Amino acid sequence: MLYFAYGSNLDPDQMRSRCPESRVVGLAMLRDHRLTFPLYSEFWGGGAAGVSHAHGSTVWGVLYELSDDDLAKLDQYEGWRGVGDHHNLYDRDTVTVELTRPDDGSVPRRVRAYTYLARTLNPTPPSRRYLDVVLKGARHHRLPPEYVEALAAVEVGSETA
Is 130 annotated as belonging to a binding site? Predict the structure, then answer.
């Protein structure tokens, strides 16, 4: 199954440790959304990424192919317990993304993929440590330079963890 990563799961080392069977399909963009930090993470000591509707904005990320085992592991990491569970930190839902630079040489196309949508609980600026992981992944996958610059300009909070 396909998964659209836009936050710390852009980091190839993190994805390899969380989902060892995952395979990068290519770069993708989620139109009419913007990157937000709606959820406080004790692990990261600041805000964790989410996306929200924003006409005309785009969130860039990476499309992965996941095995069933990888998806189950990712559900645990993302705090998703099941459909409709009120304890979910993120809801797993499908979105339509535009695969813009497929790694397999295929033609760019629109595809449906799972992603995790943070519930707005406690909007908080990300920690420097978290943002650096997102930036590491964005640079590794060569997301568009203007998008990487916008990520680098995100104001960080002080780490509390």
Answer: yes
41 exposure class (CB count in 10 Å sphere: 0-12, 13-18, 19+): buried
Catalytic residues: 78
Structure tokens given for 94? 């499908």
Is the pTM value of this prediction over 0.85?
yes
> Can you read off the two tokens belonging to residue 111?
């595809």
What domain range is 73 assigned to?
Answer: 2-41+48-123
4 marked as part of a ligand binding site: yes
**At 33, which CATH number?**
3.10.490.10
- pLDDT, tens digit (0-9, with 9 covering 90-100), for 1-51: 999 999 999 999 999 999 999 999 999 999 999 999 998 888 899 999 999
Q: How far apart are CA 114 and CA 137, in angstroms?
A: 19
Does 8 show up as a binding residue in the annotation?
yes
